[in-house]
Amino acid sequence: MSNTDLMPIAGAIDPVPVARDITPRPDGRVDLIGLPKKRIAELFAEAGLDAKQAKLRAKQVFHWLYHRGVTEFEAMTDIAKTMRPWLAERFVIGRPNVVEAQVSSDGTRKWLLQTDDGHEFEMVFIPDADRGTLCVSSQVGCTLNCRFCHTGTMRLVRNLTPGEIVGQVMLARDALGEWPKGANDTRLATMAGLEEEETAAEYTADGRLLTNIVMMGMGEPLYNFDHVKQALTLVMDGDGLALSKRRITLSTSGVVPMMARCGEEIGVNLAVSLHAVTKDVRDEIVPINKKYGLEELLQACADYPGASNARRITFEYVMLKDKNDSDEDARELVRLLKAYRLPAKVNLIPFNPWPGAAYDCSTPERIRSFSNIVFEGGISAPVRTPRGRDIDAACGQLKTAAQKKSRAERDREAASEAASEA
Ligand code: SAH
Ligand code: SF4
Question: Of these residues, 122, 178, 220, 316, which one is catalytic?
């Protein structure tokens, strides 16, 4: 975790270097969450175990961390009693800190989380009849500024580490009571910011509520590729969280140069935030389009490793009134997806409003007409029902309170308040 490499991250459009690692813990202990088994073995060896012991202990510890969800070495009953304090002196089993947990009237849950160095980010759980989807963040803030997205009005604070990314999934399992029996349910529920009865009563029944993961929280996952890859590798590892890559979807605003690597090295489903079919409109609402244009993006989709009719690419399309929602836009969308022979499905997302947004949501009639045209073109185009709007958990509404206003905004406000009082 002491790596301080600089990593190119796009600014509004162009790359700027941003330091990507967190401040080490003041107590010098190392958090094991987010590290591959091999690295854990190396750390054990560096701390004094011989190579064989280190490898064996790493295997045991890894199992406890990811299969049983324990958060204390003391609970690792097949590790010698004397060994457990030795581990606890040197290592920790981290989780993102929970600042606030909210539940929407439709059952959607949102957690405001905090890194150990004090940055806030969010995670959302969306229960459905046949599945439970966890929406995971990859960055604190975002360097891109899509005009309709609340997160886009935040500056990028930093990339989340692999531990903070996989830690969201683990925290969700804590909160949903989804670890195999034996883990300390009450304490984990408390850590996840939920009441004990709530966890026990609602969530231990079938034990498989979290079935899908979408990298659609705060941030652009392909601008934090290495950390996202490391985290998802742990999520997919059969000895780790063991979730199938078919149940994981990564959404990108269109970071073309990283898309092939995403397919080859991570292998998850791809979603692309298309949102417009002409250069002018996409330049305006998804500014990364000025750097990687529509043709380049659609070609990268056509080349996406693993995409097929059985594993379609999802094209997300936010419905903005009088901006991108005409029948002509719908016909052009069908034409483009066909021209590139894309195994595609389209997700129509009604725009979720936030204070100060420059757009309105299209009317229901307009959305229906748009959807029908795409369906008639032979492409599935369901309208996504907004979830968790009442707690600002819906797509594009995520933005942490601490970051709601930039320093400049606050200064301006203070100045105008002072002026009006005078
Ligand atoms: N940064 C990635 C993933 C996070 S955003 C990306 O842009 O793809 C998840 C989805 O929500 C994206 O398709 C995004 O464009 C969409 N979105 C953002 N703001 C929205 C809003 N206000 N209403 C509806 N969808 C929005
Ligand atoms: Fe960033 Fe995605 Fe929001 Fe665009 S839509 S600003 S890429 S989080």
Answer: 122
